[in-house]
Amino acid sequence: MPDEGAPATVPETRLKALRAGMGPVEVIGRIVTLTPREVTRQSDGSRRRLLSGLMSDGTATVRFTWWDPPSEGVDRGTVLRAAGAEVREFRGRPELTFSWKTKLAPASPVELPTVDTEATPLTPVAELRPSDEGFRTEVRVVRVAARTVSVGEERRVVHEGVVADGSGAIALSAWSDFGLKAGETVRIAGGYARAFRGRPQLVLDERTTVVRIERPELPDPAALLRAPPRPIADVEDEGGGAIVAVEGIVVGLAPPSGLVYRCPTCRRSVVSGVCRLHGSVEGVPDLRARIVLDDGTGSATVAAGRETTESLWGVTLAEVLRRLKELPDPSRISEQMLESLLGRRLRVRGPASRDDFGLTVVPESVEAVEVDLAASAAELARRLGGSA
Amino acid sequence: MALREVAWRVSARELESSLEEEKGSGDRPVGHVLSPFGARMNRVLIAGTLSPPEPLGREEPPTFWRSRFSDPTGSVAVTAGGFQPRAMAQLRAVSAPRPSIVVGKVHLYRGRDGVATVSVRAEAIRGVAETEERAAVADIVRQTLDRLDLMERLEKEPTVSDDELARSGAPRPWVRAARDSLRRYPNVDRPGFRHELRAAVRRVAGDSGPEVPAAAPPPTVRVTRASPPPPPRTPPTDDERADESVFLDLVDELSDHSVDGYADLKDVLAQIALRGVHSERAEAVLARLEEGGAIEEPIVGKLRRAE
Q1: What residue in A sits closest to B86 (Cα-Cα)?
Q2: Which of these CATH numbers, 2.40.50.140, 3.30.930.20, 1.25.40.10, 1.10.1760.20, describes B7-224?
Q3: Considering chain A, what is the average pLDDT of its residues?
Q4: Which of A160, B62, B121, B160 is deepest in the core (most CB within 10 A)?
Q5: How confident is the model at residue A7 (pLDDT cuts 50, 70, 90)?
Q6: By the CB < 8 Å criterion, does B166 face chain A?
Q7: What's the rounded Cα separation, in Å, for the pair A225 and A223?
Q8: Cα–Cα distance between A139 and A172 in angstroms, integer?
Q9: Residues A217 and A190: beta-carbon distance below 8 Å
Q10: What are phi and psi for residue B149, nearest 5 degrees?
Q11: Are B48 and B211 in contact (CB under 8 A)?
Q12: CATH 3.20.20.70 applies to domain B236-305
């Protein structure tokens, strides 16, 4: 087994070189994410604590499971040396397990291998795959916005957006503030790629370096957001995209479409008055449409929220609730919605992902397409050779 | 979970010309009707004029309706039954010929005289303004021409790879359909079909009015002879053919909605009785269909379409 990136003088194995079944190893790495958990033993019902998360040494990031961790807790960002760790494989990726047999101790960041991020290969974003690491990208920031999220007990700010180069666009989430601004061109080194909702996403954390560069040839963000629609079959083949545009005809609505009730706390849909997370709640009415758009090459579900649904249908949530008082039959609502939408030609833009049910687009914009009949007829007549 | 089948944009003429079928396999088989012009259809989107429907069978109130659909290239039957209550309501609402868009499943029925009949079982129907209908016809003609161009290229360069075609913009499902279509219909007059599309282009331009369908829908849909047809023993009467068509539709519907993929004979007989075909006649229809190889009964009392 070639031990990539580790000189013979250090005892530890680089995370990039981990393979399942290689026996106990010594590793050093920084804890990047951390979730305390507890499992209950089936046999006697006793509880056992564990920590799971990701650790990285700059050559790779791997998941770890730490059984019976110190009760005083461990901080994210800690550099850890672990001797006698087990390597297992989960879904084709190596994972580390720390048990009572493992000797664990804090280490100094200077002990981490020096990875010259500027020397890593320049990779087009279209080629990034989940779990890739040790690459550089040169990209244009198409857009970016800060958002506060809960990670376990912790509240953290994440800067989410989209970056693009000549090869394509990719979603970005930065867990440190790099002061990214839409329109600027940057070189990103030391980030990693992961799968988020079925799509590759570029993740930036405190180890990542971002350098402003001059690259006028990188695509114009406005042009990316205005790119012409592509065949749905092709977008589906690629598994979706950070920004896609498709155009087709509405051929149906997928359930649930119409009036739905949402949990007042988390906005999840409420089924039989019960929220998956918050139990019995008083659902808040909302309007949505899962529009099946078909362009003759494939079909996509457009998950339209209330605003888009109201503007496409021309009927507001208030009007729907009024109609329901008159005729308390919610199935009529989705029928009326379909009657208004069926056969309409729409152009939809937004992030798209593919799962077992096909392609779903979360629309950032939906436009009705007007067909120029005279121009279409002339073009088709030309293609048929001469005047029709 | 199978992905949703795409709605192929086709003209009535292309549906009329379709004689080849591919049966699916597995627990939930998905069948396709293959056209000579590069469409591998389970679902279609058609745009044209829908005429008022007539009920099929003698049930009161009727639960199966058939309407004639015409576009500038030809015509085809559009049906809707109790398993598509919304489509049925929409079909019944057609009181005078009107421009419409129909999305539905393609059915190919081959009678024991070897005659293939295509119909569209509606999933959704919408009466539209004339301009909307013309826009949809433009979409249909454009995609039909794209498919014909793809087939022309495949005829000239049979060895071109799917990847290369994909790079030049041909969607993969179309490439597969075009290859199948060339193989199954080696001697079809595609330039002649191009010529027939001119009528549809005139419709897009607004040079011709909406199609006016025949005053009364014929008892069976227009048929196209398959080649080579098995010799007919005694040609079925129109009534017999109508009974067979209803019977097969019922088998399809019931097996579509059953857990095991079979239509229960008792259910079929009960349903067809509601449509005015009583047990003796229904048994005779079943006997003819089994003899003709359209239906098989691998388990007693369980029917399915023959492979």
Answers
A1: A335
A2: 2.40.50.140
A3: 88
A4: B121
A5: very low
A6: yes
A7: 5
A8: 11
A9: no
A10: -60, -40
A11: yes
A12: no
Q: Would an 8 Å CB–CB cutoff place A4 in contact with chain B?
A: no
How far apart, in whole angstroms, are the C-alpha atoms of residue A246 and residue A253?
A: 17
Phi, psi of A134 (to 5 degrees): 70, 50
Query: What is the tens place of the pLDDT at every residue in A321-331?
Result: 999 999 888 88
Considering CB atoms only, which of A231, A358, A376 is closest to B4?
A358
Residues pairing with A344 in the sheet = none
B contact test, residue of A234, A299, A383 with most B CBs within 10 A? A383
What crossing angle do the helices spanning B265-274 and B279-291 adopt, rounded to 10°? 130
pLDDT at B299: 76
The conformation of residue B236, written as its DSSP 8-state character, comes to P
Domain spans of chain B, in order of start? 7-224, 236-305
The pTM of this model reads: 0.72
At A187, the pLDDT band (50, 70, 90 cuts) reads very high
User: What six digits make up the tokens of B32?
Assistant: 């396709």
**Domains within chain A, CATH numbers bracketed:** 15-111 (2.40.50.140), 117-221 (2.40.50.140), 227-368 (2.40.50.140)
Residues from chain A contacting residue B101 (CB–CB below 8 Å): 249, 342-343
How far is the C-alpha of B264 from the C-alpha of B303, rounded, in Å?
Answer: 6
Confidence of residue B105 (pLDDT cuts 50, 70, 90): very high
pLDDT in tens, B8-59: 999 999 999 999 999 888 877 889 999 999 999 999 999 999 999 999 877 7
- Interface pTM, i.e. ipTM: 0.71
